[in-house]
Fold these 2 entries.
Entry 1:
Amino acid sequence: MAILFGYLLLCFLVSAGFFIVFRASRSRRLRLPPGGLGLPFVGETLQLIAAYKTENPEPFIDERVNRYGPIFTTHVFGEPTVFSTDPETNRFILQNEGKLFEGSYPGSISNLLGKHSLVLMKGSLHKRMHSLTMSFGNSTIIRDHLLVDIDRLVRFTMDSWTDRILLMEEAKKITFDLTVKQLMSYDPGEWTESLRKEYVLVIEGFFSIPLPIFSPTYRRAIKARTKVAEALSLVVRQRRAKYEAGERKNDMLGALLAGEDNFSDEQIVDFLLALLVAGYETTSTIMTLAVKFLTETPLALAQLKEEHDGIRAKKSEAEALQWSDYKSMPFTQCVVNETLRVANIISGVFRRASTDIHIKGYTIPKGWKVFASFRAVHLDHEHFKDARSFNPWRWQNNSGAGSPGYVFTPFGGGTRLCPGYELARVMLSVFLHHMVTRFSWVPTEEDKLVFFPTTRTQKRYPIKVQRRDIFSQIKSKTRDQS
Ligand code: HEM
Ligand SMILES: *[C@@H]1O[C@H](CO)[C@@H](O)[C@H](O)[C@H]1NC(C)=O
Ligand SMILES: *[C@@H]1O[C@H](CO)[C@@H](O)[C@H](O)[C@H]1NC(C)=O
Ligand SMILES: *[C@@H]1O[C@H](CO)[C@@H](O)[C@H](O)[C@H]1NC(C)=O
Ligand SMILES: *[C@@H]1O[C@H](CO)[C@@H](O)[C@H](O)[C@H]1NC(C)=O
């Protein structure tokens, strides 16, 4: 209650000034996208939050698109904001990042991420660091270096599974271990697990907004961030010393130390810390939701099992997946795309207009926020037939991706395209391989999807797992057939 009250106060302060200006002058000169600004001060924030706490993925946007069309104005989180649910407009927004629009994050987020993180960088430094990050997760690196770690670390966590597990927690362990390995070549152990515990607190801080100053979660997150940063800077110092003594390692940290920018320890720590944040919740959530959707679609699960049993049948039980195996999982790739499309872990991105922008007959005034909604496009029947159901077969013959333009953008686009897009796909595919070949499972409780503050299931998806003896199953299958 106190938080809500404080939040309302904040909205009041932020928006009072705006309402006066907006009502008095701008609206007369500019043709704003249609829409309602809701109550003074709070705008439509409460409606937005209430809508995303239901199981229906898009009630807030659906209602407004029906009333105003694909581009509309609302007022959320203390500011007037133009929502776009139109692929062409989304493309325009993403492609003009850094020119007509800029990324926009509240101060509470940059305190947690650190000012030298990729998401907060701009201009030529951003360009250079984005491409460095891209090259660390590109398909060559995954094929030659990361895949074997991914395979090993997925197995490592799964080895400990017995009976009832919280799938989301397990997926988080896997993702965290993988990212730490990729960034600084550390294998999982006590150190990574204690680091991860602090990390969890940092991440909770991101969702304690709207009102950081009054939020104990936020204060705890800032403390945890300091601890994480200390742990990481110890690693950076040690590695720098080794680097100066001539040791080279082929990981992200190695590349940052070797770069021509002479980054300080603080810069490197910020950069690494933010990379860990970016991959952690997203990838573990997509793993969990893929399993949930498959469980609810038995035909798809059966077909996926068949594909992976076929791959495993050609290998011994302990043999790692090869790049060629990854490249021969056509149905899995349909499942991956369909999960990304339906789950919409990142439902869209906020930008701020750096100048008056004229688009589709409307004007977005300089300084206004825009939200390019990916989810609204992904769930639009115009772009995907029967868009709100999970149907991996729609991607067969590549018909799902056939539509041109910015219709399928789970990883964003333009200069801020997610540098982890390939890595996330490979991680999910390898995870699914071991999940379906090594286990069968049943959910132990009903677990609903919610969309606020992030897309996730309410109960972290508890399941009861049972080991499959796939090798004797494959043998008996071949026997039956002969
Ligand atoms: C299913 C998993 C993932 C999804 C859906 C996802 C989605 C996205 C999206 C939509 C953006 C664009 C944000 C914007 O334009 O403002 C983004 C940016 C980013 N992602 Fe991912 N991501 C995923 C996994 C990962 C992984 C595994 C990593 C780590 C290696 C990662 C690192 C980043 C970074 C560093 C950025 C910021 C790029 C920049 O601002 O230049 N992501 N991600
Ligand atoms: C991936 O990045 C490396 C440099 O780290 C580069 O040599 C290679 O050509 C890149 N591969 C692709 C497919 O872009
Ligand atoms: C980084 O350091 C090297 C040698 O110490 C120097 O030659 C170079 O100019 C520095 N680069 C930048 C961008 O400061
Ligand atoms: C894909 O192509 C196959 C064979 O050409 C066809 O049987 C199948 O129905 C197609 N699937 C979709 C979703 O169009
Ligand atoms: C999945 O989506 C990507 C675009 O993000 C596309 O390139 C790829 O062909 C799609 N895969 C399938 C199987 O349709």
Entry 2:
Amino acid sequence: MVRRSRAVAARGSPLTAAAAGDSRPTDAHHPGEVVFYTHTLCPYAHRVSLALAEGRVPHTCVEVDLSRKPEWFTAKGLRLVPALEWPATGEVRKESADLVGLLCERYPGAAERLLPGGSVTWAEAEAALRVCDAGFVSSGMAFLGGGWTVPRTPSRGKTVARTRFERDLDALDRMLEAAGGPYLLGDALSAADVLVWPFAERIELGCRALLDLRMADDDDGEGSPSKWRAVAAWCAAMASRDSVRDLAAPERPLLDAWQRTGRLDFFDYETASVATLREEGKSG
Ligand SMILES: N[C@@H](CCC(=O)N[C@@H](CS)C(=O)NCC(=O)O)C(=O)O
């Protein structure tokens, strides 16, 4: 039986290693098992955590405090998360999209679920990623604030950036319709969704809460619906998945952190994680 990934099984709990700067991996490594170096707020690491969860790949998670990188992390030649290590051989690999591809290559369960029905190829998933990256992801990040910045107060946003982003959402809508939806490559989730979603999730939240633009419909059917119907259906399909719900940061504390710091990547500069934001959400 495939062991369910701990990141997902341990709903709402911190991952297996402490986030302190001098922390060490605390979990015993099982020979042959893969170790996932992550930061739960990093969108690139989020791609890999979704792939591990959806692909049901047994793994050990090690959360790395990026604001105080531990020595054991840099000693592995690592500077960024995500990374995967196979302790049995000492092999360490990085780059989020490559890691998702590697999981599909090495774990038949991941290939079966992320390249569904044998009809979706890795090349198609990569092509969809390229189209989305050059389209709504790039213009969405620019609209949100440019680079990794984010507005501190809600507004309607700059007209030119908004127009470009809306045009790219039109294109995404057409792409989803052409694929038949609700997912990027058709009626089943694939590696394309796993690669693109972490950015879509952040852009959707920032646009809804800070810039008065809706990619998705509200859960409760309240508020104005998104004008991009296929995009809204994609967001709803993704949001209904356990992996997506389990790995997401709570919205209010995440928005508070974005607005306090003016940065989407505030966790590069201060100790924070999905788990600590969840705690803040409970006490706030
Ligand atoms: N191209 C890399 C980007 C990874 C990346 O930028 N990770 C950020 C966190 S979101 C990081 O590790 N930042 C630490 C630093 O810049 O020192 C990938 O796709 O894996």
